[in-house]
Amino acid sequence: QVQLAESGGGLVQPGGSLRLSCVYSGSIFNRNIMAWYRQAPGKQRELVATSNDFGGTNYYGSAKGRFTISRDNTKNTVYLQMNSLKPDDTAVYYCNVKTFKGTWEEYWGPGTRVTVSS
Question: What is the pLDDT confidence band of residue 46, given thresholds at 50, 70 and 90?
Answer without folding.
Answer: very high
